[in-house]
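This is your field. Please look over both lines of this record.
***
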Amino acid sequence: MRRECAKALGKTRDPRAVEALNGGLKDENLSVRRASAVALGNLERETSIDLIIDALKDKDEDIHVRRDAAYLLRSTKDLRAIEPLINALGDKDSVIPGYAADALCEITGQDFGKEAQKWQEWWEKNKPK
């Protein structure tokens, strides 16, 4: 039931759903956490981007939620995601670095693969001052 509620909240695209979905990211049930992460991605990006970034950065977070967060950030085009995505290139999971590299390419128009050092050097030269 909670998973279906998270899905429904995501379909509303109503920013008022953020608080409930943020709670869903901490649910004990994996399918609820994943549905909440995906639903946050469906909400207005400005409203949900910080929560998606937090889910990516939280190493205690379930690996599937971190994977979903990295994947969702690909379509944000939001510069706030760049540093967390660079950090995610070093994630111990085998999938997250690839999603992070794809997201970085999509957001920046650059392609340094999974090479965190090159991404970091590029970002230091190009980030807004």
Remarks:
- DSSP finds eight helices and no strands in the chain.
- The chain has a mean pLDDT of 85.
- Residues 73 and 103 are 6 Å apart (CA to CA).
